[in-house]
Amino acid sequence: MEAALVTVATGVLKPVLGKLATLLGDEYKRFKGVRKEIRSLTHELAAMEAFLLKMSEEEEDLNVQDKVWMNEVRELSYDMEDAIDDFMQSVGDKEEKPDGFIDKIKSSLGKLGNMKARHRIGKEIQDLKKQIIEVGDRNARYKGREIFSKAVNVTVDPRALAIFEHASKLVGIDEPKAELIKLLTDKDGVASTQQQVKMVSIVGSGGMGKTTLANQVYQELKEKFKCKAFISVSRNPDMTNILRTLLSEVGCQDYADTEAGSIQQLIRKITDYLAEKRYIIVIDDIWDVKTWDVIKCAFPMTRCGGVIITTTRLSDVARSCHSSIGGHIYNIRPLNMEHSRQLFHRRLFSSEEDCPSSLVKVSNQILEKCDGLPLAIIAIAGLLANTGRSEHLWNQVKDSIGRALERNPNVEVMIKILSLSYFDLPPHLKTCLLYLSIFPEDSIIEKKTLISRWIAEGFIQKEGIYTAYEVGVRCFNELINRSLIQPVKKDDYRGKSCRVHDIILDFIVSKSIEENFVTFAGVPSLTTVTQGKVRRLSMQVEGKGDSILPMSPILSHVRSFNVFRNRVNIHSTMEFRHLRVVDFNDSLLENHHLANVGRLLQLRYLSIYMTAVSELPEQIGHLQCLEMLDIRYTMVSELPASIVNLGKLAHLLLGSEDTCVKFPDGIAKMQALETLDEVDASKQSYNFLQGLGRLKNLRKLHIDYHDVAQEDKEVIASSLGKLCTQNLCSLTMRGNDDDDFLLNTWCTSPPLNLRKLVIWGCIFPKVPHWVGSLVNLQKLRLHVGKEIRHEDICILGALPALLTLGLKGMQKQPSCEDGRLAVSGEAGFRCLRKFKYWRWGDRMDLMFTAKCMPKLEKLKIIFYRHAQDEAPIIPAFDFGIENLSRLTTFKCHLGCRPMATRTFDAVKASLDRVVRAHPNHLTVIFSYPLRTSDMTYTFHDCYMRSQD
């Protein structure tokens, strides 16, 4: 990825360089007196940006002076951009040619204004250049002195200590250890000779205990192998050293006796030595696919049998290990509450019974925050061991988790391990990760709003044919891949969200404060001393009253203003003229708070999601930089006419199931629109529905066409047809049960660009033939009214890119003779990963046969019937789950009346037999209705896993 526009390392130097180049263009050529200074400043800043990027690559080892210098340059870059923006704004509208006497006077005043602006920008550029030189001179002046005082501080890698942890001190290790041994051996505990080499890749975030688990399995099995080795890699591996160490361990010789040679020579020696021998090798802590691609070449596919175990924090590395040799990916699980409590109390007391009753409640609250992360539990226990047994002090520690926890040697070990993942990130991902510190603890952060914020802040940008949003999706997925954020789904078809583990949040909050990246207000137990100007403000004051935001010089340069769980009384928005991002998400916002929003001319992102606002001001049309507007779950029922003048608006999120928003005419002017979600067609004019089809850059559309007149349906069909031949790649529609106009009308030309198609409410008599033409489709949800036929399965199975399928059938009884429609390997579904199927009644009409759906990982079956039906659903589970070879998760939901306890036990036992018969270690979530009163039902989730 190219250097991002804005990074935590370089601040806004890159945008500043772009704007300085603009000042050298023809539009500003009348400012001749400062062009020489601008060129000189540009050269100086370009050199500084390059140097800062280089320093950021070595951030882990920077000394205090280097960090101070980087902070000074970064802060100056923000001041420079603010000054340039103010200048450009002050002269931007002074070039019109007026007519008449009054206009001539105004023109003269305008020229005077330009003269003032020219004088001001010249002076500011000279001042900024002077400050840049002073910062550089100061750094150089003190830099020379460190040569005489610099000492190397060698520390022990805390991960290495996990290898030497005695088994008696470990908690919760027995079950995962047994699972891995089962995957790697036959019943007698010996590696299989039928499969030449067995391998498992253990994947999970830092501090989960991957190294400890791998070592315990290694210690259990190593005596059964002639050759054995446990090799730790690192973030910056020396491949020659690693291969020499591997050769010395498997060959039982001293490291010094292994001859240094090329990587190819060392690989050949290892391969030749292991060729006819049984071996077990652990490669611990792999950080990239390239490293694995080299190491794997040393492992011969011996007939004698072998075992390979790898550990990694990165999902793509685990997949690479799995695909190159075959075997299993093992997602290490956090400790459950029982094991967490055992580990916690073992570190603090001799046993759980010795925990004072006054500390039981706060202990459980602390463990909930640790969320099963062993490293965090050990670190917090070490911290508490030095605080005494005071409930008040323990509560203080509990409140500080996730809010820049106070550092001591116990916590520092945890921070060091977590920081390895941070320092391994490229600059743009470091910036995107630190930005998550803005959100309060335990927030569920929606992917699309997070990415839009990244764009508005300038962290990511368009790359070639990929939009900025698509680049943002890559960044989001990469943070998940690196186990730094946890994916959360609101439901199967509403996109992903994420959350940040409290311990990782603690780290990034500390880092954000250190870098003056985010300033926090109202966060309990978090004291921030702001010496510089506030650039991004996160207000987390809880309460029902207005919070008064005092104005001060350090607040006047705020670029991102975020209010959580409260409302803020701002005296004058003009004081915040540099704002780029404003988020009042779920706060106590009212109409009058937006009175002057039209003056925030740099604003790119505005969210009033889930607030009581009922009207947007007409002056919102002045926000010519606005790219994202989120008014979902508000009381707004009509958009102002000026909304169509927002020429850069790319993402417009509006409406909900309860609130419909009416558009003004003129939507065709909004050619920058990429996302429109959700539009109620019944509230829109005929002209709007026509203009919808002219949005050439629209990529995502959610439209509801309930209760729409026939002539409007024809216009909608025409507009959808036009959009599908352009850039539309995601389409969600809601209609009426009896609507069939979509069956053929709008798909005379197949929408080949579609990657997601969700159709709610419209019941098709069969799978439409045009679905088979959607060669790029990755997600599909359809409702078939009569029956699922063999032809339907063939159409869906032939979709070459399909990853997620939701299929709902209404047929009460299976139509095929044997009662089951076979889904075989010949049916296709070569890429399908997730399958959600609604089945009427308790008789499954699909049968999964051998080799079908070869990549399916998640299966959810929903058995349902009409609410008035009294009989409970008692499903049979004999529909071939055991033939889904890659399945990891099975969810079963019974949408019916509650069942008797005896009946439930029988259903659960039937499901348990199927789970036990599956070759994989399945996670099963069984949801069933539970009567909570005479009239109310809730659903209870029963979690089960296959046993040995």
UniProtKB/TrEMBL annotation:
InterPro entries per the UniProt record, alphabetical: Apaf_helical, Disease_R_plants, LRR_dom_sf, LRR_R13L4/SHOC2-like, NB-ARC, P-loop_NTPase, RX-like_CC, Rx_N
Q: Where does this protein have coiled-coil stretches?
A: none
Q: Which UniProt keywords apply?
A: Coiled coil, Leucine-rich repeat, Nucleotide-binding, Plant defense, Repeat
Disease resistance R13L4/SHOC-2-like LRR domain: residues covered: 557-923
Q: Output the superkingdom of the source species.
A: Eukaryota
Enumerate the spans annotated as NB-ARC domain: 194-351
TM regions (residue ranges): none
Record-level GO BP terms:
defense response to bacterium; innate immune response-activating signaling pathway; plant-type hypersensitive response
In alphabetical order, the GO MF annotations are:
ADP binding
Domain (Disease resistance protein winged helix): give its ranges. Answer: 438-508
What family, per the record?
Belongs to the disease resistance NB-LRR family.
Report the protein name in the record.
Sr13
The source organism is Triticum turgidum subsp. durum (Durum wheat)
- Gene for this chain: Sr13
